[in-house]
C-alpha cells in the first residue's frame, strides 16, 4: 500500500501586519526626505528560465519554486551606497533588484546588530514591511533569513541612533529568486487553502483542547533549495524549565543541512478568531532558527519518524504558548484529537472517537505507529492534509501520543474514513536506536526520573480582564467608524482608549468622552486590515474587546 507523506511545499506568504520576532516601528526614511539617494544598489542576473523549465520537467518532485542566487554584499556605513546622516539617526540603504522575480527571500550568512540598531525590509511600494530586526535577532550561528516579499525588488534599511556604539555585521549571502509557484499557485497553499471538511480551533469541538493548541506551530522548512510546510509542537520536559524543544517528523527534514535549520521559521498562534473561516488572514508570531537534537531516521527503512528540535531562542512571554505534555506508555488511547496546519492553513483540529490501533508503517515488521480513523463532529469531519506532517496526536488526557507521518485521509468524501499514521511517542522515547541522537528520553527526561506521563505547562502572559458581555463593539468587522458602548461608561469624560495590533504593539492611544448611554465612536479607517485588541480604561475599570478591521 502506498501512503502519502503530509509535507507540502511552501509557495508564498504575503506579509503585511505579520512579522518575525521583532520590535516593530517604522523606518526612518518613511518619515524623512532622503534626497536623491540611489534607488538600486544591486541588479541580480536572472536565471536561465528555459534551463530551469527543462530541469523541472526531469525533476517535478519536490516542487521547486525558487533558486538561490549569490549576492555577497554587506550593509554597512562603509559599503552601503544609499546612506544619509540625520540629526538623530544614521540611515543605510541597500536595494536588490531581481528582474522577473515573483518574490524574494534574503539570506544572511553573517547577521549581527549592535544594541540600538534596527533593520527593516520592505518592497518597492512600501506595502509590505518586516522588522524592526534588532539585537534580539542575533544568534551564535550568525545566520538569519526573511520571509518572502512579493515582487522583484526589495530594500533593506538599517537605522542606528548617533549615540549607539558598534558597527553592524550584516552580510547577504544570497537571495531566493521565486520564479513560479507564487502568483499562479498562491491560492493553493497557506491561508484558506485547506479542505472544506476541516474544523477551526475556536469551534466547540476544540474547547477542551485550548491549552494544547497553543503549543502547535506550522514550520517553513528550508531544504534542498526549496521550502515546504510541516507542523509540530512545543514539548515540556521533566525539569519543566520551558526549554523550547519542538517535536515534528523526521521526514520533514530529510535533505536539510545545518545551515538550513538556522533559517527555518516557526509560526505560532496562526488561528482563526471564530469557528467560521475568517474574512481576512489572522496574525501570527514567528521564531527563526533551530538545531536538531535527535531524530528517528528515514521512516522508509525504520523507526517512528520523530524529529526533536531546539529553537535558537527562548520564546517571549507575550507569545502565550503551551509546552505540551506527553505519554510514553504503549497503550492505545480510546479517543482524542490531532491539531495541525493542513496545507499551511490556519490551525485545525481533527477528532477520533475510536481507540488507536497499534501497527507498522508501510509494511515494516515493528509496530512503530498508531493508526487512527477520524470522526465527524458538529462542525465538520477534520482529517489531515499536506502540511500536517509532524503534528501531534493527543490521547484522552491531552498528552502527546505520537507524531504524524502520513496516511490516506482527505476531505474527499470517499477518503474521510481512510486511516492516518502517527509515529508512537513510546517508540520514539528510546527504541529507534542506542544513541541520544536517536531518542527523546535524554532530552525530555534529562534527569532520568523515569516518569511515564507528563502534563503540559503554560508560558503565561497577563492580559487585561475581558468583560465582553459589558462591552458592545459594532459593526465587527468594521472598516471606518467603530461604535463602542457599555453601561459602565455612561457620561465618562476621561476614557483612555488603546488599540493594539496582533503582536501586542500599540498603534493608537487617546482619551475620549462618552454620552449619557455610555456610547462613543472611533475612526479606524487608517488602520491596516487585520485583528486588533481595544482596551477602554477609566479610574474604576478596564474593558477589552477584539475586532477585525477590513
In short:
The protein has 550 residues and is mainly beta. The protein has 3 domains: 8-187, no CATH class; 192-458, Trypsin-like serine proteases (Thrombin, subunit H), CATH 2.40.10.10; 468-549, Sandwich (Immunoglobulin-like), CATH 2.60.40.3080. The protein has 6 helices and 40 strands.
Q: What characteristics describe this protein?
A:
550 residues; mainly beta; Thrombin, subunit H; Immunoglobulin-like; 9-stranded mixed beta sheet; 6% helix; globular
Structure description:
The chain contains six helices and 40 strands. The chain has 550 residues and is mostly beta strands. Strands 1, 15, 25, 26, 27, 28, 29, 30 and 31 form a nine-stranded antiparallel beta sheet that branches. The chain is globular. 45% of the residues are buried.
